[in-house]
Each structure stands twice: as structure tokens, then as C-alpha cells.
Amino acid sequence: MKVIRNGILSLKHSVLTIGAFDGIHLGHQSLIVKTVNRARELAVPSVVYTFDPPPRVYFQKQMLLTTVQEKLVFLRKLGVDYTVIANFDTYFLSKSAAEFIEELKSLAPHEIWIGPDFQFGKGKTGSIKDLSEQFNTYTFPVVKCSKGEIISSTRIRKLLGNQQQQLAHELLGRNRLQKID
Ligand SMILES: Cc1cc2nc3c(=O)[nH]c(=O)nc-3n(C[C@H](O)[C@H](O)[C@H](O)COP(=O)(O)O)c2cc1C
Ligand SMILES: Nc1ncnc2c1ncn2[C@@H]1O[C@H](COP(=O)(O)OP(=O)(O)OP(=O)(O)O)[C@@H](O)[C@H]1O
Questions:
Q1: What is the C-alpha radius of gyration for the chain, rounded to an integer number of angstroms?
Q2: What's the gap in Å between 72 CA and the centre of ligand 2?
Q3: CATH (domain of 65)
């Protein structure tokens, strides 16, 4: 896996997913595996575009679930070809949705895969609709736990705060990632 930290990656083709991916939990893993599998089917590189720190850690001082180094280990295990890490700082977060979309064009994505409610750009004004006007954009179905509740980084942070380590660990899906070794 090649890692591009705060730089521009130019590709001729790709399949792309974008997000904070803090924790690389079971929902993230399913979305990333879908991206990797679609890239393999189309015989193009898979790309994960992520942020450091995660926006919720930056804005709301929430607990960080995975360091960048841990994230990269998991993404490598999931078979990702390229990871782009954008430094999430005042310069980056002030980019408009349109400017961000322009940047994504250098990755030449044939497909972009994202989960429901994905938002981006200054003030979170960019929507899935904006992405789909420029790229073939697919919304991945939300992954829930066995009790039917949505898996999210926020939920896992709350579980860890409430000493529910075992359920948090299950939703993080670390056992599954170990099996990929
Ligand atoms: C160029 C850019 C600018 C952003 N600016 C803001 C912002 O001003 N306020 C905010 O809360 N989030 C901002 N975000 C973060 C997004 O709302 C969102 O958290 C990020 O795209 C990751 O998506 P995810 O939370 O679904 O993983 C920005 C994201 C991007 C790509
Ligand atoms: N349970 C899930 N099932 C499918 N896709 C998901 C799931 N959780 C997140 N995603 C998708 O993964 C990408 C990264 O999401 P993000 O990092 O915001 O995760 P999150 O768990 O929703 O985090 P947070 O709770 O901090 O908002 C987004 O495209 C998002 O829609």
C-alpha cells in the first residue's frame, strides 16, 4: 500500500472511498472491502481518502480510537492500494465542497463508495448529491450490530466511556482483522 500524506496523488483510474474512518470498525471495514473488491473487478487501484485528526476529534475533542499508524496497518490488511491522508487543519477545513471535488478529480475515480449521510467541505455543505453530479457515486448500506443498532465511531466511544469494553471490541471487529493476517 502506498501512503500519500498531505500531497496530491494523480491516478488514471481508481475506485475511491472517503471518510474519517476512526476505529476502522465493522461498518468501515465492510465499506472499504467493497471499495477494494470493486477496484479489483475493474482492475484499477483502490484508494482510501482519510483525515488526520478525524474531524470529530478536531472540532469536538472526542476520543481518538485509532492513531494514523494503526489505521494504516488495518487499511493495508484490508488490501487497499493507496491511502491519502489529508492534514485536517484550518487550511484544509476551509476548502469549499466544490474545491474538494476538484481535487478528487486527480484520482480519476470510476466509482466512489460512501456510507449514508456523507458530508464534506467547509461548513459540511457538500452532499452525496454533489458528489454524484461529478462521479459515479454509490451509497453503501449501513452496517448494524446483531441487535439492529447502527455501528459508528461515536457509539464505540460512548461504549468505551461506559466501561462496555467487550461490545466496543466486538463492533471494532478486531478479531476479523486479525484473521486477515
Ligand atoms: C474539504 C473539507 C472541509 C471540511 N470542513 C468541515 C467543516 O467546516 N466543519 C465540519 O464540521 N466538518 C468539516 N469537514 C468534515 C466533514 O464534515 C466530514 O466529517 C468528513 O468529510 C469525513 O466524513 P465522515 O465524518 O463521514 O467520515 C470537512 C471535510 C472536507 C473534506
Ligand atoms: N455502520 C456503517 N455502515 C456503513 N458505512 C458506514 C458505517 N459507519 C460509517 N460508515 C461510512 O464510513 C465512512 C466514514 O465514516 P465516519 O468516519 O464518519 O464513521 P462514523 O462511524 O459514522 O463516525 P462518527 O460516529 O464519528 O460520525 C462514511 O462514508 C460513512 O458513511
A1: 16
A2: 17
A3: 3.40.50.620
ipTM for the predicted complex comes to 0.95
Report the sign of the C-alpha dihedral through residues 46, 66, 58, 118, in that order.
positive
Nearest CA to ligand 1 atom 24: 19
- pLDDT at residue 165, rounded to an integer: 93
Residue 176's pLDDT band (cuts 50, 70, 90): confident
How much is the average pLDDT of 49-64? Answer: 96
Closest atom of ligand 1 to 59 CA is 11
* 82 inside domain: yes
What's the whole-model pTM score?
0.96
